[in-house]
RNA sequence: GGUUCCGUCGUCUAGUGGUCUAGGACGUCUGGUUCUCAUCCAGAAAAUCGCGGGUUCGACUCCCGCCGGAAUCACCA
């Protein structure tokens, strides 16, 4: 069955990790079945509308590699894809409902409704608007909300994730269909649009589960077939038990892009939070996810967001891309992450740096701190040498002598490459009768003054003979 | 408060009556990989399967009750 799915965000801000899954899962299902993915912008709340939010949403989806078949930018047979531009349509449908006696214009003032509500809470009785419904209906005129005329009864339905559901009549109420400003509510608009657009699977967060009976009633009154309903569990904040939201500091998905997280890792992590294929596989490409995704393996309970696992996955993906697609492919992703000091250096040189450092990257932005000494001479810090745990046993005179031997030996190296350097370093070990910890630490620090660096012979190879010797000489003079 | 959902290592999870003395991954710890950091490899600690009853020869798995957590009860989505 070809699934027609949709992601229908309201443009009130960026997409954060707490809600992006309701875009990913529909996408995977649509692609897997050869169906369609629709992007629809639910901008019926004019007060919460945020300028530029639509672009932010589109940007996030594109970055994650989630393309859509119908929606803004690409268009489609059901244009427009902004609910604000489909306003008249909802009114037409509401009118039909009024004609068939399943909706009514409601002139009741909001203040009056508040009173009813307070009355109920004072009496510790659930507030149901249908108990206060006007006795006689008036003709609708613009500026008046339109309400659904509910018929209390039990409902049973099947949720693809949560299973068989059942609710009593107390959850049905006269929900607002059209607001006094003429715009539809989410409750009504999404039903009309999903029907018009042929959506087969409605996937959304579990928070809509309790409103489902009202939607079911609406489908019936409108003579529509129920789409398949899929409730997605929440993503929980790192601490506490609440769902992850912007208030918990939920970062936008694209903020991670700027922090050097790869889209592949982000997608991989997010899908795995609440879904697995039953095997022990941890790393999935988008293609594998499309192939293996299944609704019946979506988790029913909420999953806690854990950034450390995301970061681990990111490291895995960085290495995987380098190892399977090549240095150039990974390099192309790093262009914005090099330290300022790298300006002016060739791509060829940076590629070499990347090749020896990539396997210790957790995020691409680690490049900034980790590679500086490849581009600029480090500041000499003698304490770092004499205070080193392997070198502090040696006197300064000893260190000085050792430096001289090292400089002399390296000056004679003709073929400055990793293999040759490894050989020379080993000879030096024998000649000086020093332990690797002592000799290598000295050279490593003298050449980088960094907390850590790649293997010494590789570091020296990339630095080149001239730079290596210049730095060693400078250090020798400073001691 | 009403309604609904959820409950296995710290975290993400596997598990559909016996193969579970509960498996994997992240994280943590230990050791190895000629220096550092990381990768990689090997290993360890870590879950009385929320609690209590039942059904059964046998329950993490089925049933009931309880407890705990969450969601929702807007002219927001």
What can you see in these coordinates?
- The chain has helices spanning 21-33, 53-64, 87-99, 110-122, 186-196, 212-222, 253-258, 263-272, 286-292, 307-325, 327-334, 347-357, 366-370, 382-386, 396-411, 418-432, 436-448, 456-463, 465-478; strands at residues 4-7, 36-39, 103-105, 146-148, 155-159, 163-167, 176-178, 201-205, 228-232, 235-236, 303-304.
- It has 479 residues and is mainly alpha-helical.
- It folds into 3 domains: 84-232, HUPs (Rossmann fold, 3-Layer(aba) Sandwich); 253-373, Glutamyl-trna Synthetase, Domain 2 (Glutamyl-tRNA Synthetase, domain 2, Orthogonal Bundle); 382-478, Arc Repressor Mutant, subunit A.
- It has a 3-stranded antiparallel beta sheet with strand order 3-4-7.
- Helix 6 (212-222) links the parallel strand 8 (201-205) and strand 9.
- The radius of gyration is 32 Å and the shape is elongated.
- The model has no long low-confidence stretch (mean pLDDT 94).
- The protein binds one RNA strand of 77 nucleotides through helix 4, strand 6, helix 5, strand 11 and helix 10.
């Amino acid at each position: 069955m070809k699934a027609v799915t949709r992601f229908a965000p309201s443009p009130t801000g960026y997409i954060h990790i707490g809600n992006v899954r309701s875009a990913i899962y529909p996408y995977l299902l649509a692609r897997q079945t050869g169906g369609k993915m629709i992007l629809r912008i639910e901008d019926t709340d004019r007060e919460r509308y945020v300028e530029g939010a639509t672009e932010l949403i589109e940007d996030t989806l594109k970055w994650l590699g989630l393309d859509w078949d119908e929606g803004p930018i690409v268009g489609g047979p059901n244009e427009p894809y902004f609910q604000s531009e489909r306003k008249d349509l909802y009114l037409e449908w509401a009118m039909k409902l009024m004609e068939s006696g399943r909706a009514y214009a409601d002139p009741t003032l909001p203040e009056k409704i508040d009173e009813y509500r307070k009355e109920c809470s004072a009496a510790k009785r659930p507030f149901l608007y249908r108990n206060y419904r006007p006795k006689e209906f008036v003709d609708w005129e613009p500026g008046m909300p339109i309400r659904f005329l509910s018929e209390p009864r039990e409902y049973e339905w099947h949720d693809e994730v949560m299973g068989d559901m059942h609710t009593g009549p107390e959850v049905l109420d006269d929900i607002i269909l059209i607001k006094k400003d003429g715009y539809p509510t989410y409750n009504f608009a999404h039903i009309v649009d999903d029907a018009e657009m042929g959506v087969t699977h409605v996937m959304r967060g579990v928070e809509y589960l309790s409103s489902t009976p009202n939607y079911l009633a609406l489908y019936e009154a409108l003579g529509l077939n129920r789409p398949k309903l899929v409730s997605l569990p929440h993503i929980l904040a790192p601490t506490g038990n609440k769902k992850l939201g912007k208030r918990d500091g939920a970062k936008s998905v694209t903020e991670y892009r700027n922090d050097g997280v790869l889209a592949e890792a982000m997608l991989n992590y997010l899908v795995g939070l609440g879904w697995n294929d039953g095997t022990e596989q941890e790393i999935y490409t988008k293609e594998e996810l499309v192939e293996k995704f299944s609704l019946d393996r979506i988790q029913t309970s909420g999953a806690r967001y854990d950034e450390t696992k995301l970061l681990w996955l990111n490291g895995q993906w960085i290495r995987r891309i380098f190892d399977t697609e090549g240095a150039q492919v990974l390099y192309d992703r790093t262009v914005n992450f090099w330290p300022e000091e790298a300006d002016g250096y060739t791509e060829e040189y940076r590629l070499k740096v990347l090749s020896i450092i990539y396997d210790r990257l957790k995020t691409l932005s680690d490049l900034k701190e980790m590679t500086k000494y490849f581009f600029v001479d480090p500041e000499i810090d003698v304490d770092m040498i004499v205070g080193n745990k392997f070198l502090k046993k040696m006197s300064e005179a000893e260190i000085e002598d050792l430096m001289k031997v090292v400089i002399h030996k390296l000056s004679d190296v003709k073929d400055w490459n990793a293999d040759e350097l490894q050989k020379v370093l080993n000879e030096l070990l024998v000649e000086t009768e020093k332990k690797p910890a002592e000799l290598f630490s000295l050279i490593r620090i003298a050449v980088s003054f960094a907390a850590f660096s790649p293997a010494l012979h590789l570091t020296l190879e990339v630095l080149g003979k001239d730079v290596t010797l210049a730095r060693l000489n400078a250090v020798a003079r400073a001691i």
